[in-house]
Amino acid sequence: MFNSEEIFSRNILYWGKEFQEDLASKNICILGLGGVGGYTAEMLTRAGVGRLTLVDFDTVSTSNINRQIIALHSNIGKKKTELFTERLKNINPELKITAIDDFYSDKLEIDLTDYDFIVDAIDSMRSKIHLLETCHKSGVQVISSMGAGNRLDPTQLYICDISEIENKNAPFVSNIIYQLKKRGIENGITVVASREKPFSQEKITEQERIETKSGEIVEFNKIIPASTPFVASTAGILMAYYIIKELMK
């Protein structure tokens, strides 16, 4: 028989029964279920968050296996939203999940103000910028992953305001900062960043073509980053930790 108090008993020993019950009422949206977002979803579920909305258009591929918690040979080709729904419900059967199997863009019908927190684990720059701009202008709490690819050392990750990022010269980060600054946004967004200089043996670019559920065709050049097992997972855990810490306030 399911017993939520027993499942979360070790959490309760730290933060108490009242906060554990409060977590069950929280509603969090996770955009991107890759190496970062997958671990964030896992940790928030094990913490006892009661409602999750999961947004991802992708399926598991062989190249995901080195770093993504849901990526197994038996899951190749399966939808990430479906796999995470099954997995997370198996951790907490009372968890309420809304799974959106779609690509995030300005055409996606989702009201970000419905949520207590937004998790940005998107790797498409255009979508990421739109999401962060929307959250900032709407006053929605968001935490964004900025620097899990092309890195090895998880101990160099840290949480800060976007204005306090130390290594602004990394191309992905600098482009996001530049585009947000053009939109009048220079601070007020929490990020997980890395002090480590990005590195890859070679630069690989692919043409990405995605058809959204609304019929929109999204095309862009995607740079394939080097990804180790250590950094994306740690970034995802840090994001979950930050959310729980903020909710405790």
Fold and architecture overview:
This protein is an alpha/beta fold. It has a single domain (13-200, 227-248), classed as 3-Layer(aba) Sandwich (Rossmann fold). It is 35% helix and 20% strand. The chain has 7 helices and 9 strands, in the order H-H-E-H-E-H-E-E-H-E-E-H-E-E-E-H. The protein has helices at 4-7, 9-23, 35-47, 80-91, 125-138, 171-182, 231-248; strands at 27-31, 51-55, 96-100, 117-120, 142-146, 157-161, 190-194, 204-211, 217-224. The strands form 2 sheets. The protein has a 7-stranded mixed sheet with strand order 3-2-1-4-5-7-6, sandwiched between helices. It has a two-stranded antiparallel sheet with strand order 8-9. Helix 3 packs parallel to helix 7 (231-248). The chain is globular, with a radius of gyration of 18 Å. The mean pLDDT is 95.
